[in-house]
Each structure stands twice: as C-alpha cells, then as structure tokens.
C-alpha cells in the first residue's frame, strides 16, 4: 500500500471516525433528554451519512478501489475539513 493511502486510512480511522462518533453521541444525548431542535436532527442525519462515507473510504482503500490520485484528493479534502473545524474552536 502506498504512503498516501496509509495516510488517508490513518486520518480516517484515527481522527475522523472517532470525532464523528463522539459528536453523534453528544447529539444522541441531547435527543435522549428531549432537548433536540430540528437543526440537531438534521445534524444527526448529516453526521450518520458522513460516517458511512468515511467507512466507504476505508473499504475502497483496502479493496484497491481507488488509485493514489483519488486517495490524495480525498486526503486533501479531509485535511481542509480538519483545518476548518479547528479554526472554529
């Protein structure tokens, strides 16, 4: 496996998925307390969809379904998302 694919897997498995899962847990806690808004419900749908996309990336890399150029493009997009989310903190 090439380095870019290893880097992509690492950022997806060790950073993105845990962050999305933690955020989903927070949203589900809000829902359990019956304090949710329509915006929260939309966020849950979006995050669950995003989680599936991340899992599909892992599958595609492991099954050789994406090439290095595609892996690089996805990796760069994820890095952009990370930078954007950290600038909002």
From TrEMBL:
<feature type="coiled-coil region">
    <location>
        <begin position="20"/>
        <end position="47"/>
    </location>
</feature>
<protein>
    <recommendedName>
        <fullName>DNA repair protein Rad50</fullName>
    </recommendedName>
</protein>
<keyword id="KW-0175">Coiled coil</keyword>
